[in-house]
Amino acid sequence: MTLVDRDFQGAAGDAGTKDLASVQDTAGAERPLIELRQVSKTFGTVKALQDLEVSIRPGELVTVVGPSGCGKSTLFNILAGLEEPDPGNILRLKGVSSAASDLLGKVSFMPQRDLLLPWRNVIDNAILALEIEGMPRAEARKLAMDMLPEFGLAGFEAQYPNQLSGGMRQRVALMRTFLFKRDLMLLDEPFGALDALTRTMMQRWLLDVWQKHKRTVLFITHDVDEAIFLGDRVLVMTARPGRIKLEQVVELPRPRKANIVTSLEFISLKKTLLEAIEEESMKSFQVAGH
Amino acid sequence: MTLVDRDFQGAAGDAGTKDLASVQDTAGAERPLIELRQVSKTFGTVKALQDLEVSIRPGELVTVVGPSGCGKSTLFNILAGLEEPDPGNILRLKGVSSAASDLLGKVSFMPQRDLLLPWRNVIDNAILALEIEGMPRAEARKLAMDMLPEFGLAGFEAQYPNQLSGGMRQRVALMRTFLFKRDLMLLDEPFGALDALTRTMMQRWLLDVWQKHKRTVLFITHDVDEAIFLGDRVLVMTARPGRIKLEQVVELPRPRKANIVTSLEFISLKKTLLEAIEEESMKSFQVAGH
Amino acid sequence: MSGTATLAANLPVVSTGRIGVVLRPVLWLLLALVVVEAVVVVFGIRTYYLPRPSVIASTIMATPGAYLAGLWRTFLETALGFVAGSMFGVVMAVVFHRWQTLRELFFPLFIVSQTIPVIAFGAVVVLWFGNTLFAKAVISFYISFLPVTVNTMLGFSAVDPRQVQLMRSFGASDAQILRRLYLPAALPQLFVALKLASSLALVGAIVGEWFGDTTGLGVLLLQAMYNENVAGIWATIVVSACLGMGLYGAVSYAERRIVFWGGEQ
Amino acid sequence: MSASVSSDSLRQFSRGIAGALLVAAVWELCARGLDLPAYVLPSVSSILAGLASDAGSLLAAARFTAAESFTGYAIGCLAGMTAAVLVTMIPSARSVVVPLATAINSVPVVAYSPLVLLWFGIGMASKIVMVAIAVSFTIFLSTIAGLDRVDRKSVDLIRSFGADRFTVLWRLRLPTALPLVIAGMRVSTVRSVIVAIVTEMLGAYGGLGWVIYQAVLQVDFVKVWAAIIVASAISLAFFGAISFVERRYVFWR
Amino acid sequence: QDLVNASLRLKWLTQAQFAGFYVALEKGYYKEEGINLTINPGGPNLLTENLVATGADTFGLSGGTDSVFAARDKGLPIVCIGVAHQVTPFVFVSHKDGAVQSVADFKGKTATTWFTGANHVLSAMLSKAGTSPSDVDIQPQQVSVTPFVDKQVDIVTATRYNELYVINERVGKDNLNLFVPEDSGVSFPRDTLIVSEQTATEKPELVTKFLRASVKGWKEAFANEAEAIDIIMKISPTLNRAQQEFMLKEVKTLMTAGKASTDGLFSIDKDAVGSANKLLAEYGVISKPVDLDAAFNASFIESIPAEERRL
Ligand SMILES: Nc1ncnc2c1ncn2[C@@H]1O[C@H](COP(=O)(O)OP(=O)(O)OP(=O)(O)O)[C@@H](O)[C@H]1O
Ligand SMILES: Nc1ncnc2c1ncn2[C@@H]1O[C@H](COP(=O)(O)OP(=O)(O)OP(=O)(O)O)[C@@H](O)[C@H]1O
Ligand SMILES: Cc1ncc(C[n+]2csc(CCO)c2C)c(N)n1
Ligand SMILES: [Mg+2]
Ligand SMILES: [Mg+2]
């Protein structure tokens, strides 16, 4: 197993980003939107992240895979400004050095579970972030109403979360994240709780929406197919303490069709990634006596 | 989309079952262990199953995929004797016509979630079925203790479910199912709640255990990779009302290695199945306005 | 998923703060008592409004036997009523769970029964059961069984139907399913009710003693009240508080021991 | 679906009534058949007759008791919730206040009643104080439990939207606590009426407890039972009202 | 020796007000008469008449003539077999330095009293003084006498043996005016011994034996007060000894007043009882005057010679 060069700047430069939104963004094309260097995080005696280095350019969709407990959510919490990394780190947003807490309210974040508020209906859940920002409720609702059809939720605005299927709940949560318009979107296993078929549908739909809205996205998943299907780049993390083990540029053309998963390029990417992941998984997966 | 001939007897005859346990079972090799014909099930106004035809030979591992709500769990409930199908059905166990309720206690059944009892430790959860059968506790525990290492649970016998990881919980549930020794084992999405990496590990492990214990298994899953990787045959069900849409024999050699998923035969099987499933998924998956 | 990592995270940690958890409130309480003592003395508050904590203590110490005897008697009544009420409550929950018709016919009346102030018909209880410890226990019983029934039923209804199906697929009988599934599954909810029921049973015993008795905390309370013996009232409150907290603590302790897996499934 | 729900609740309702009638009939039969005198157990019919003939005074007493319990209940709920919110906002106070409140809550309320009567007299004030004490600890503890139920992940999410502590409290913690708070409020309804009545029996200027006390001494057991029925009706109505509010506003569970 | 089981239900908790019965029990006087007696204390929500009528208790020391009349009026089959307090045991109290110096001064003032009979005594006293009861603000009296001590009310009701002690302690014996019902010509004997009609007819000798033992107990209690108080204090150690000594002295006065001074303890003064009967009927507490001879049976107590009952 080889550790690739971790200079993403360079590596990303080679990536096939022909039809990416960021290309239109002439000024910031080469400057990373966000850059982490030497980021570690310790919880008591548990080292969750160690010397992590990540850098994401505007408009990219980067997927992250790694074994359970390797620190993916911790990374997201840092990027969302919810958790401060250990001292000695470098964290740059649009080239400006910042503390993690400065990021609070600056990235839009979708955690592992949908976390919809059961007492709010679809539309009011979607506008939660806008309301907290201080936007008048009526205005926020109007904005969200216009977005409903695109998220496959037209006609469902007055439903409450307990009346929705798992897939629909995820779409409401995604809509809430999209409505909170920020340069960087963090999606932590948004489809982890869905069954495989529903998940496939959601992936295709997400690609559509992403290409229309041109956001920079960091996307955590456990599913290698999903990571390849969606990503411009796939980052494989090591078992705890989490570092980047492998960075794989995905050169599959966009827009991607569903049947791309049986294409040869896809399969060969999958092979490479599976090998890297398998090694890490074995480290953390303990089958005693087996 | 073609509907295949539903004479499983014939179709199964061609299946590559070289190293299957059933071959050794000289008497029952050709007689199906269980056979369902014209099985329908209606809940009030909901038609869950319609004229379902399934037949499973001893020693086979048959996987079932189908969209959510197509009636897979209903099928299992009938086979477990928990639910009576609509009148007019034919249900034969080892060639003997039976009512569904006759099957109660005759098949070992693992429902969709692990359903471990939180107040029982690993060993006592595993022996639950034996205890209900009336086996003395000490004897049942002894039996289960011997099985622990094989299920990767050695040393964990005194742990309680809330102290176990998701993968371990599933293994305890599987062990409970294995200990309840019956001719037919029904596994309803046993790995559905696990993350993709853990799931891969569990699949490989299950194949090992299955080959050692030589049980007949019917296995529900949402994951096409899983269905192909595990099964001798894959049954694809239609959207509600559930019927068999496609029956695909999997001729991949056994024992199967993890990297088989990137083999060409695997990919081509996946292509065929995905097409069939996609059609059905689209029927039940509603993305309004999309 | 790493088994060992999850294990470490979930293993019951022997809390070093345990002693602190008990000690801290005790220290605060002592401090509060000192402050009250000082305030009463400095501002010259009349005993009638608030006796000095030291006066309350010396009131108890003047006749410790009387307070101990009252405590013991009330404890017996409470314990008897509480145990009987809890058992009856669970049995009724099983009956109501098993027979829907009975539930629909009589469960509303169970609720109604609790809206009747027991003090209004305590005399009838004395009429029927005489001036015995048993009569007070009956009153305790009466006001403590309903929460147990309600919560046990709640616990039953939270049982996953798939779990029941699983048991049935093993060929389990109704009795086996009740014993091995429903009853243990209802334990967390049951204990929530038991904690409430223990307090209620104590109220029942004290009120029960207002219907003619020679010993007991309720008697001490009445006597002190009608003789305007404020220090005596306080002394009895303190002893009742100890009994109430003791009962609650005992049930909580049993809960921690028995429902070790926690309420969440 | 909705049709079957309403036919379900119709059956439940009619069965509930049937059960009540059954018990009333058995009671009536016992009272008449065994020729029980009123001072042992008055018949249902005589209680109903008593209810009708004393309607005026019972209604006045009911109003008195209802006023005491509602006022005490409202004060208790407000105090309990406010204290709970304050305690969650000041974490250092928690480790002292919560164990203390749990301890005090396990002390029987009736133990305080003599003191409260001595301090606040036998007017309404003492009943209101008793009810408020009884209610506030229950509400305090259930509110604390409710506020604690909030998922850390949800707090993180809403913080990532830039919410401050008060926004988290208002938009997340309080609504999350609502189901438990209302459940506590529902249980407290019956308790508040009973506490008011028990306190009245130890001394009052009016109210159902006072009527019962007087009626016992005047050997009027029909009146005692009539007052009990009125008390029960108030409790049930109060309980029903809060249950209705609960179903209405905690629709998501 | 064959002992007959029987119980005595008191009107209140154990205190010196009932000392004689406890002394008799302690000294074995009931056993000497062949009775195995249990003494059951009362409580605020218990009606002794009810418990005796239903047979739950054999004997009762009930509230007084008022409660006996009310019970008879409601058809409870009880009979009074002796009256303990020969005169009204309560008095009305005002502050010496206050505006109320005579019963006539009650007009326009605030008085508190118990609405269990004492209120009618007050009304009768007012009527005899020419004041309409509606001109006095009469309120239910609470457990505590503090409102009177704090001068929030002008007149308070007190039993001579209990509340009066507390008022004396807190205000000072010399700072009080006492208004005695008998001075206004109103009498209301209380603390009545009762049995059920059934016991009265079926076991007259049991009743007589009980009375004999009780009388003996009371005489012993009055003769040896310290020992009587010891017995009470042993049962209820939290009581205030000084208060109990005061109580026993006052009770002695009440029990030996009027007819009892000549005929002995537990005498039934038909005149006093009759006036109370009229009073209650007048105020509508009972629907019509009760048949006195059926309600009060003096034959049991009178079967014990007066000299044996006199102190
Ligand atoms: N607040 C915390 N306190 C202590 N340990 C923590 C905390 N948060 C996370 N950890 C530990 O840090 C490690 C990384 O956790 P993290 O949640 O980031 O993993 P993950 O990669 O997101 O896992 P998963 O795939 O299961 O979501 C884990 O071992 C976890 O137990
Ligand atoms: N007891 C029941 N009463 C009424 N409808 C039922 C019942 N059980 C199942 N159904 C309905 O029958 C259909 C098939 O359900 P089933 O649970 O068998 O689906 P499934 O294929 O197992 O779905 P999933 O993949 O989500 O587990 C669904 O529409 C379901 O709503
Ligand atoms: C007529 C009369 N009515 C009520 C009371 C009030 N009360 C009820 S029980 C009790 C204790 C008696 O020692 C007291 C004070 C009374 N005293 N006398
Ligand atoms: Mg995570
Ligand atoms: Mg299913």
Automatic annotation (TrEMBL), chains A, B:
Family membership: Belongs to the ABC transporter superfamily.
Protein name: ABC transporter ATP-binding protein
Upper lineage: Bacteria, Pseudomonadati, Pseudomonadota, Alphaproteobacteria, Hyphomicrobiales
Keyword RNA-binding: no
Stored InterPro entries: AAA+_ATPase, ABC_transporter-like_ATP-bd, ABC_transporter_ATP-bind, P-loop_NTPase
Single GO term (MF): ATP binding
Domain ABC transporter: 34-264
Signal peptide feature range: none
Record-annotated membrane-spanning stretches: none
Taxonomic superkingdom: Bacteria
Keyword GTP-binding recorded: no
Keywords: ATP-binding, Nucleotide-binding, Transport
UniProtKB/TrEMBL annotation, chain C:
UniProt keyword annotations, A-Z: Cell membrane, Membrane, Transmembrane, Transmembrane helix, Transport
Species, as recorded: Mycoplana rhizolycopersici
Main localization (coarse): membrane
UniProt xrefs under InterPro entries: MetI-like, MetI-like_sf
Family (UniProt): Belongs to the binding-protein-dependent transport system permease family.
Keyword Repeat: no
Highest taxon in the source lineage: Bacteria
Organism ancestry: Bacteria, Pseudomonadati, Pseudomonadota, Alphaproteobacteria, Hyphomicrobiales
Membrane topology: Multi-pass membrane protein
UniProt protein name: ABC transporter permease
Entry's localization field: Cell membrane
SUPFAM superfamilies according to UniProt: MetI-like
TM stretches of this protein: 26-48, 78-96, 105-129, 141-160, 181-211, 231-251
Domain called ABC transmembrane type-1: residue spans: 71-249
Transmembrane is among the record's keywords: yes
Automatic annotation (TrEMBL), chain D:
Gene3D superfamilies found in the cross-reference section: MetI-like (1.10.3720.10)
Transmembrane annotation, as ranges: 12-31, 38-64, 70-90, 97-122, 128-147, 193-213, 225-245
Main location, first listed in the record: membrane
A Pfam match: BPD_transp_1
InterPro entries for the chain: MetI-like, MetI-like_sf
CDD domains in alphabetical order: TM_PBP2
Compartments where found: Cell membrane
Cleavable signal peptide: none
Domain of life, source organism: Bacteria
Coiled coil: none
Domain ABC transmembrane type-1 span(s) in chain numbering: 62-246
Bilayer disposition of the protein: Multi-pass membrane protein
Keywords from the named record: Cell membrane, Membrane, Transmembrane, Transmembrane helix, Transport
PANTHER family per the UniProt record, alphabetical: ABC TRANSPORTER PERMEASE PROTEIN HI_0355-RELATED, ALKANE SULFONATE ABC TRANSPORTER-RELATED, MEMBRANE SUBUNIT
Family of the protein in this entry: Belongs to the binding-protein-dependent transport system permease family.
Annotated protein name in UniProt: ABC transporter permease
